[in-house]
Amino acid sequence: MAPSGAGMTLDWNDLRYFLAVARHGSTLAAARAMNKSQSTVHRRLDELEAALGQPLVRRHPTGYRLTPFGAALLPDAEAVESAAQALEQHLDRLAQDTGSAVRVTCPEPIMYLMTKSGLIDRFHALHPEIRVEFVLSDKYMDLAKGDADVALRSGDTDDGELVGRKIADSLWAVYASKSFVELNGQPQDVSLIRNFPIVALDGSMAGHRLTHWLATIAPQAVIASQCTSILGLISSVKAGLGVAALPMALGDKEPELVRVLGPIPELTRPWRILAHPDVRTTARVSAFFDFITAQSEALRPILTG
Fold first, then answer.
1. Same domain, 163 and 222
2. Which of 23, 24, 143, 258 is most enclosed, with most CB atoms within 10 A?
3. Which residue from 3, 147, 151, 154 is spatially nearest to 69, judged by alpha carbons?
4. 188, 261: one domain
5. Same structural domain for residues 164 and 183?
6. Are the C-beta atoms of residues 34 and 41 closer than 8 Å to each other?
7. Is there a single domain that holds both residue 42 and residue 126?
């Protein structure tokens, strides 16, 4: 086949079939992956080759292999696929912008304290057309993928794509239950924490600053309990299982707990409100940003303690 040149008529959707055959090595496997018939894969691949004027694959006893032309085209086809996926994600976000909800991700205790303080009710009173929906997790939701619109975060993040601002400080200290202190005493210095049973986060939270801090100051300490959340840490400490570093905004509110050390400077981080640039300027997200940044006094006991 001779190249059809500038006058070619190309259906970009046919590239999906070419990529499937290139990745799976056969039209049958490609058909299964795409949930299409094998005859459809053959037809769409033939149409693409006809439009391009050159064969893209050759049949071999072990399956299909790319021709030199097909191998040369593969990176461009993958780039088209990536661009199409990015466009679909952008369209999804734009479609969400027409909704009446702003989805806010934060740790569960922060949602509880913000709601209990009346902060969310005041936002709804100012903006009755916008509904706050919480996406609760101690782990970071992917804002670029649309898992949430806005994040309230106090930890380390290398996601430079997000935009936002500082709204408070996150301060941490070491706590134990009153009964634990009566039975076991308490560490008089951070370096002595290693001599006490410790409540820590589990492997699913390996990137958390608390995990890194404990690995530095008490690498050989006895771990009495491993938790998947900050609420789990609080419950374990209240049960008298050991000592743990906790956010002061939460630990100081627990009457059964005693602050034995701190604040711990190594665990201090800024609280920030963050969003992806694609949704930051939408009316609903802007309204929530403006409200939260104006509520610094009300947020201090919730976020800082």
1. no
2. 143
3. 3
4. yes
5. no
6. yes
7. no
pTM of the model: 0.66
Give the length of the chain: 305
Q: What is the DSSP string of 73-128?
A: HHHHHHHHHHHHHHHHHHHHHHHHTTSSEEEEEE-HHHHHHHHHTTHHHHHHHH-T
Report yes or no: 228 and 138 within 8 Å, Cβ to Cβ.
Answer: yes
Question: Residue 290 — φ and ψ, nearest 5°?
Answer: -60, -40
What DSSP character marks residue 243?
B
Token pair 């610094």 is at which residue? 296
Q: Are 162 and 275 in a shared domain?
A: yes
The amino acid sitting at 208 is H
Using alpha carbons, select from 63, 76, 73, 58 the residue that is nearest to residue 24: 63
- Give me the residue label for tokens 């913000």: 114
Amino acid at 184: N
Report helix, strand or coil for 280: helix
pLDDT tens per residue across span 188-228: 999 999 999 999 999 888 889 999 999 999 999 999 999 99
Q: For residue range 49-102, list pLDDT tens digits in order.
A: 888 889 999 988 888 899 999 899 899 988 888 888 877 776 666 555 556 899
User: Which residue do the tokens 């509520």 mark?
Assistant: 295
Q: What is the DSSP string of 138-196?
A: SSPP-TTTTS-SEEEE-S----TT-EEEEEEEE-EEEEEEHHHHHHH---SSGGGGGGS
